[in-house]
Write a structure and sequence with these properties.
The protein is α/β, with parallel strands linked by helices. It binds zinc ion (ZN).
Length: about 450
C-alpha cells in the first residue's frame, strides 16, 4: 500500500506545524498550526492549503499551542468538517485559546482598517471568533494510550508528551505493523505538575521536533530565585511585574509559589494573577487529573491547592485590574502576555516601568521584535500605548522555565528506542539549529536523519 508523509508546515521553521499522512488513498492531517514570526513567515497563513480540503478524512492534534492548532478555524472556513481528535486537556485549552485568537484577528483587522495601515483593502481577519467556535464543534476527545481507528487499517495512540496540558506524542501503527511516531512538542523531565514525556520504544519512522536542538536549558534554581525576589520586594515594599504566558508558565510559577508558602520561605505579600485566560487555564490544569505527575497527585490528595495558593488572588474584571494601578507594594502581579506584545501587563508596565523600585521578571524566551526583547536587551525606553515610557525598573529573568525539551532532553527521549528507526525527520526548528542537531544524532546514534524542506514528500 502506498504511504507518504508530506511536510507542509514547520519545515525548516519553528511554527505552522502541519504534516499530511497518506495511507493508501486515505489522508490524515497531523496538526494545523499558525505560522508566527516575521511577516514573510506569517504570510504563509494566507496561502491556499496545498491539498484538497475535502480529501482530509480526519485531523489529529498533538496539542493546543497556536503553532499547532491556530490555522484549524481557517481550514474549517474552507469547508473541512471531519472529526478533529485530541485529548480532553487539549480540547479544554483550545476552547479557551481559539476563540480568543479569532477575537484578536478581528480586532487587528478593524485597527488596520481604521488607521489605513493595510496592504489588503480592506484588511480581513484570518479567521473570526465564530470560525473558532465552528472548529471547536468538530473536536472529539481521545484518551491517552487508547487505540483510535484511522482509515486504511491504521490505528493511532496518544501518549503524554509532558509539554503542556493534554500535549501528546502520536504513534501511528500501519496495517503491516510499521510504526510512525510524531513527537509533537517534547516536554521536560522532572518538572512540576505534568508527567514526563513518554518513553517510545519502537518507531520505524520518527518525526521529531527540534526547537532547542542546539542548546541546554539553564540549571538555575527557580524556587530559590523566586524566593529571593519576593523577599526583597517585601523588604523594599516594591512591586514585581511578571509578564507570563497563560498556558503552562503561569501554572508552573503558581506551583513554585505554593512550595515557597508551604516551606515558609516567603513573607505574606499579595500575589495577583491578572489574566482571565491564565485563570481559566489554571482551572483546567487542576481538573485534568489524567495529566498529573505523582507530585501533583500527592499534593491534591493531601487537600492542598498547589495551583491556587492562599496568597494568590485571581483578577477577572478590568476594573479590579485597573485598581491595582493605585495599590502600593509589596506585591506581585502576574499577567499576560509573556512577551509584552499585548494583554494587561502592558497597562501595569505603563504605570510602573518608570519607577526604579519596580522589578520586571520575564519568564521565558522573548522573540525578536517584541517589547520584551527590547527590555531584556537594555532599551532605555519602550513605546507603550502611544507613550515613550522610560525603563527605570530592574529587569530580571527566570531562565529555567521552558516547556520544550532542550538538546539533551530530546536525545534522552530518543534514547529509549530499541532499534534504529529507518528514518528520522527533523521538523519544528530553525534550519541552522536542525543541521547542528542532525549531526549530533548521527554522531551519537548513527541514524539516518533528514531535514525536510517545505512541500517535501517522503514515500515509504
Ligand atoms: Zn507547543
Amino acid at each position: 500500500m502506498h504511504r507518504s508523509i508530506a511536510f507542509d508546515g514547520a519545515a525548516r521553521t519553528v511554527t505552522g506545524s502541519r504534516h499530511l499522512l497518506s495511507i493508501g488513498g486515505h489522508k490524515v492531517l497531523i496538526d494545523c498550526g499558525l505560522f508566527q514570526g516575521p511577516r514573510e513567515i506569517r504570510e504563509r497563513n494566507w496561502e491556499p492549503f496545498p491539498f484538497n480540503v475535502d480529501e482530509i478524512e480526519m485531523l489529529l492534534l498533538t496539542h493546543a499551542h497556536t503553532d499547532h492548532v491556530g490555522l484549524l478555524p481557517r481550514l474549517v472556513k474552507q469547508g473541512f468538517n471531519k472529526p478533529v481528535y485530541a485529548t480532553s486537556g487539549t480540547i479544554g485549552l483550545a476552547n479557551v485559546a481559539l476563540p480568543d485568537g479569532g477575537r484578536l484577528q478581528e480586532e487587528d483587522a478593524r485597527y488596520h482598517n481604521r488607521h489605513q495601515t493595510t496592504r489588503h483593502e480592506p484588511a480581513l481577519p484570518l479567521f473570526t471568533e465564530n470560525d473558532a467556535y465552528d472548529a471547536l464543534k468538530l473536536m472529539k476527545p481521545v484518551h491517552y494510550h487508547q487505540p483510535l481507528k484511522l482509515p486504511g487499517g491504521a490505528t493511532a495512540r496518544y501518549l503524554p508528551a509532558g509539554h503542556i496540558l493534554g500535549a501528546s506524542h502520536i504513534e501511528v501503527t500501519l496495517e503491516d505493523g510499521e510504526i510512525v511516531v510524531f513527537s509533537g512538542d517534547v516536554g521536560r523531565y522532572d518538572r512540576p505538575i505534568l508527567k514526563d514525556p513518554s518513553d517510545i520504544f519502537t518507531a520505524d519512522y520518527l518525526v521529531v521536533e527540534s526547537t532547542y536542538g542546539d542548546l541546554q536549558h539553564s540549571k538555575e534554581d527557580t524556587e530559590r530565585k523566586l524566593a529571593d525576589l519576593i523577599n526583597e520586594a517585601s523588604r523594599n515594599k516594591s512591586v514585581i511585574l511578571v509578564p507570563s504566558f497563560a498556558i503552562g508558565r503561569t501554572q508552573e510559577l503558581l506551583w513554585y509559589i505554593h512550595l515557597l508558602i508551604e516551606g515558609n520561605k516567603i513573607p505574606r505579600i499579595p500575589i495577583y494573577v491578572d489574566s482571565p485566560m491564565a485563570n481559566a487555564t489554571t482551572l483546567l490544569y487542576t481538573n485534568h487529573t489524567e495529566d498529573h505527575d505523582t507530585e501533583m497527585r500527592i499534593s491534591l490528595a493531601k487537600g492542598e491547592s498547589p495551583l491556587n495558593p492562599e496568597l494568590v488572588r485571581l483578577v477577572q474584571d478590568r476594573n479590579m485590574s485597573k485598581a491595582l494601578n493605585l495599590a502600593d507594594g509589596p506585591m506581585m502581579i502576574i499577567a499576560g502576555s509573556g512577551m509584552v506584545n499585548g494583554g494587561r501587563i502592558v497597562h501595569h508596565l505603563k504605570q510602573r516601568l518608570g519607577d526604579p523600585s519596580t522589578v520586571v521578571l520575564f519568564t521565558g524566551y522573548q522573540a525578536e521584535g517584541t517589547r520584551g526583547r527590547d527590555m531584556i536587551e537594555g532599551a532605555e525606553s519602550v513605546n507603550i500605548l502611544g507613550d515613550e515610557v522610560p525603563v527605570r525598573a530592574r529587569i530580571e529573568k527566570l531562565n529555567s522555565l521552558s516547556a520544550h525539551a532542550d538538546s539533551e532532553e530530546l536525545m534522552r527521549w530518543m534514547s529509549h528506542l530499541n532499534s534504529a528507526p529507518k528514518r528520522v525527520f527533523l521538523v519544528h526548528g530553525d534550519y541552522e539549529v536542525q543541521k547542528e542537531f542532525r549531526l549530533k544524532i548521527i554522531e551519537r546514534y548513527g541514524w539516518e536523519v533528514d531535514i525536510p524542506a517545505p512541500g517535501d514528500v517522503f514515500e515509504f
